[in-house]
Design a protein that fits this description.
0% strand
């Protein structure tokens, strides 16, 4: 799970949102479902901390909803995007 923890730590600590997003997008197609789950969670963190995320990142996490074991994590992340990127 070290890779997943790294993705989450990056989303919480890096100031370069776009760089972090590119890695999250990449890891949404990782063979390990725990890594894909961490990528979804990390996207939610990015949305909360930076108040915006790219359409490509949202689409990549959205594709995880097709996987029964990741549907909940993907839905949670997309809900965070909706809540935290909404204009006031």
């Amino acid at each position: 799970m070290a890779l997943g923890e790294t993705l989450i730590a990056a989303s919480l600590n890096l100031q370069d949102r776009e760089w972090a997003e590119q890695w999250l997008i990449h890891f949404t197609s990782h063979p390990d479902s725990d890594v894909r789950r961490a990528a979804a969670l990390a996207l939610g963190h990015l949305a909360r901390l930076h108040r915006r995320v790219s359409r490509e990142a949202v689409e990549a996490v959205g594709r995880l909803r097709d996987d029964q074991s990741l549907a909940g994590a993907a839905a949670d992340a997309l809900e965070d995007v909706e809540i935290f990127t909404r204009e006031p």
